[in-house]
Amino acid sequence: MLSRAVKTCGLGLLVASALSAGERNPATDWMAEARIGAFMHFLPGPDTFGRVDSFDVPAVARQLADAGVRYFVFTLGQNSGYMNAPNAAYDRVSGYAAGERCARRDLPLELSAALAPHGIRLLLYLPCQTPNRDLQALQAFGLSEKPVNGDRKIDLAFARKWSEVIREWSERYGARVSGWWFDGGYAHVGFNGEIAALYAAAAKSGNPGAVVTFNPGVGLKRWTAAEDYTAGELNEPLTVACEGRWLEGSQWHVLTYLGKTWGRRDTRYTDGQWAAWAAAVTARGGCVTFDLGPAAHPSDGPVGTFDATQLRQLKAVAAAVGRQAK
């Protein structure tokens, strides 16, 4: 999602050999059982940072429970440099004061508490590199100001610093967070197996049972030896069939969007089209995460809440998958 797709994956450090049935990871059992989850791009910027304080956590939790999803993926931040939770490690390295770039309000902590009574797990989204539009942070973390396809080259020295940021969040949330979806794990930025292992260890420091994945770009593949499930970013998912729960040892998983693109609040397929595809996927042990667009302004509804039409469609798909599973 951070930049254009990586077409090939010929790096020996990245691509693991096919795993035998005995090596399939039971930590992902809950994903196959959950079947359907939701994803939200809530990305504050310099003019919208205050919306973190307006985010309606109880309303979002009620909507997700009503939709019938079993897990929710929430963004810590992305490109702007503004984060949805405090992080002293990030502040220390970047040189920003507390609350200047990392919100004082801790949305993941609040979301985990609100979702738990509904039996909904929380997962977190974070890029594999420092926010690429924040030059102060880029310099402080030792990255080049020169972009490569919109991103910066990374190396082990950088990854060790970024791992400390990841580790702080992981150890704060502990078992409240069930997994991580790392974006921008592209070959062209220097992402490799050693970096993946560093990030995975940091993400699991607070919860050894957490699942992780690293996005290589649009496509469906096992990308790293450190991953538990496929990142599975797909733009046209209805053309992709699930042949079984495991893809070379990774839990088969797809992340796609209900609207016309990421973060949109409209719909692009009918309930029937989505339901038929999702039911076929989950019948074979795969799972699907749907991106929905949040209300970014009070004029759209309580900040963070989903559009009624998208929510109705997600509920219809989850219900169809649930009926198929019985």
What's the SSE pattern?
A: HEHHEHHEHHEHEEEEHEH
Could you tell me the strand content as a percent range? 5-15%
Percent in helix: 25-40%
CATH superfamily: Glycosidases
Biggest β-sheet description: 7 strands, parallel
Question: What key phrases describe this protein's structure?
Answer:
single chain, 326 residues, alpha/beta, TIM Barrel, 7-stranded parallel beta sheet, two-stranded antiparallel sheet, 10 helices, 9 strands, 32% helix, 13% strand, disordered N terminus
What does the model show?
The chain is of the alpha/beta class. It has a single domain, classed as Alpha-Beta Barrel (TIM Barrel). The chain is built from ten helices and nine strands. The chain has a seven-stranded parallel beta sheet with strand order 5-4-3-2-1-9-8. Strands 6-7 form a two-stranded antiparallel ribbon. Strand 6 and strand 7 form a beta hairpin. Helix 3 crosses helix 5, helix 3 crosses helix 10 and helix 9 packs parallel to helix 10. The radius of gyration is 18 Å and the shape is globular. The N terminus is likely disordered.
Task: Summarize the SSE layout with pairings.
Elements (H helix, E strand, L loop, with lengths): L28 H6 L1 E5 L10 H4 L2 H11 L3 E5 L12 H7 L12 H9 L5 E7 L7 H6 L15 H18 L3 E7 L9 H11 L7 E4 L31 E2 L2 E2 L1 E5 L13 H13 L3 E6 L15 H18 L1
Parallel strand pairs: 1-2, 1-9, 2-3, 3-4, 4-5, 8-9
Antiparallel strand pairs: 6-7
